[in-house]
Amino acid sequence: MSSIILVRHAQASFGGSNYDELCANGEVQAALLGEYWSRRGIVFHGACSGPRRRQLETARIVAAKYREAGVDFPEFKVMKEFDEYQAEAVMRECLPRLVEADANVRELRRAYEESKQSTDPGEKRSAFQKMFEAVIAKWVAGEVAADGAETWSEFCMRVERGLASVVRDTPPAGNSVIFTSAGAIGAAVGRALHLSAEDTLQITWMSRNASFTSFLASGERFRLSAFNAHPHLDGDGLLTYR
Asked: Are residues 81 and 159 in the same domain?
């Protein structure tokens, strides 16, 4: 069977001018992953990345650490199938409507706005995540929709098409790596375990930055082997979610 490994991008720049780039801590996380795999002689026969900058930067840093160690790493190709779902559009269009109609979301929005006054970045990150999860859960359940943006079902089908392509291109007993985001990893786990949309969404919240999730694939078979592994992230401040 082939091994397909999905890597969640390293920590992005939440609260910065551009979220879609790695912060300094994220660069360290990605470097540690590349060093960890290269020291163990993990060989990949194929590699690809979603198109987001944070995904591409993670891939480039891992590849660079391989080459520094004198270990081959394949040229990775960009596949839009492994882009994240359109969270920005969902939040932009659905949050205002939910603030008006849903008391819980309204309270979460209030708490998030208050957290902006805190000097603790963790408080702001936590408040945003609670609000974000509430809005995305309603989108996944089909209670709200963003005009012009794909639905959760369409997103999962997109990821499945990408996975099918990678599986076809990976030789028997070969390894391929995909640098992507938490949503795509959740969709892959959902496919392997036949999870509901709601349970699949819960998986996405558990994925650590720069962690990796492994699957075994052969033909139509696609099985989960390991989820959210992060043995390379053993230092203070390296275990992050956003």
From this structure: yes
E strand or H helix at 240: none
147 within 8 A of 93, measured Cβ to Cβ: yes
Within this chain, do residues 73 and 94 fall inside the same structural domain, yes or no? no
Task: Please check whether residue 238 lies inside any domain of the structure.
Answer: no
In a domain, 33, yes or no: yes
Judge whether 185 and 213 are in contact, CB under 8 Å: yes
Q: How many residues does the chain have?
A: 242
pTM for this one?
Answer: 0.94
Per the structure, the complete domain to which residue 76 belongs is given by: 2-85+152-229
Taking the chain (242 residues) in consecutive chunks of 10 residues, what is each chunk's mean pLDDT? 97 88 97 97 96 98 97 96 96 96 97 90 90 97 94 97 96 96 98 97 96 94 97 92 84
Query: CA–CA separation, 61 vs 36, rounded Å?
Result: 12
* Residues 93, 80 share a domain: no
Query: Read out DSSP for 192-207?
Result: HHT--HHHHHHHHTTP
Q: Beta strands 175-180 and 46-49: pairing type?
A: parallel
